[in-house]
């Protein structure tokens, strides 16, 4: 059984996939899979926007002759993020899942529907996935986006694409609400092409991604807070271990205690530092 057959069987019982498949059949009848071969989804993640990399990615897409059909700029809720990657995150640590949830729900992303003018043997989804490149630095090729615009780390890797048409339908159902889905299919069905958006990007030139500096801030916040003796002892012990051992990682339990005592602010600096210092797998 090939991967396409497995996905088709797996997604048939998934609500997001079923909903979008139904809409696709309304627009394209039973030929929807062949009609949708020209289209692909690309998600520009929050770190891309915050670090001023969006226009560079738009330039690569334009140069590769991808036309923009539809886009949204929105925050994505933690439940949607868990659903998006539920199959690929089977072996992921809870810390990795949590930091992704925080990133996408705190800051906006761009959701793009793109198309290619001429298709060869590959669908647009497959072409975009190849252009994206691997999250693993050692597996990237020179022409790929993640090789040209170096990601911060394995988690903060700038973009996501739907691997194939089955993922395309499923992920649209997760990321878009009912009205947005109708707008997207109207755009695809009428062959609409729109300009890539101009983005007012924030460029953080003075951020400090040092773990030691972040831990010192927690220490300082703790001094001016009313914290139980047991929590204070636990936090001090974890700070000491993180400073003294490179192999020591930030755990979800540690984050839980910090959050409960209001000792951290969920800004981009915090998200980067945590993503640099957690275990990625369970």
Distance between the termini: 29 Å
Sequence stretches where pLDDT stays below 50 over 5 or more residues: none
- Placed side by side, the strands forming the largest sheet appear as 2-3-1-4
Judged by helices, strands and strand pairing, the structural class is alpha+beta
- Radius of gyration, taken over Cα atoms and rounded to an integer in Å: 21 Å
* SS summary, helix count: 15
Number of strands: 4
Oligomer: single chain
- CATH architecture type of the largest domain: 2-Layer Sandwich
Description:
With 282 residues, the chain is of the alpha+beta class. The chain folds into 2 domains: 3-189, Nucleoside diphosphate kinase-like domain (Alpha-Beta Plaits), CATH 3.30.70.141; 211-276, no CATH class. 51% of the residues lie in helices and 9% in strands. The protein contains 15 helices and 4 strands. The chain has helices spanning 3-11, 15-28, 32-35, 46-50, 54-63, 78-84, 94-106, 124-132, 145-148, 165-175, 178-189, 211-223, 229-244, 252-260, 268-276; strands at residues 39-44, 66-74, 109-116, 159-161. A 4-stranded antiparallel β-sheet has the order 2-3-1-4, with helices on both faces. Helix 2 (15-28) runs parallel beside helix 11 and helix 7 packs antiparallel against helix 15 (268-276). The longest helix has 16 residues, at 229-244. The model has no long low-confidence stretch (mean pLDDT 95).
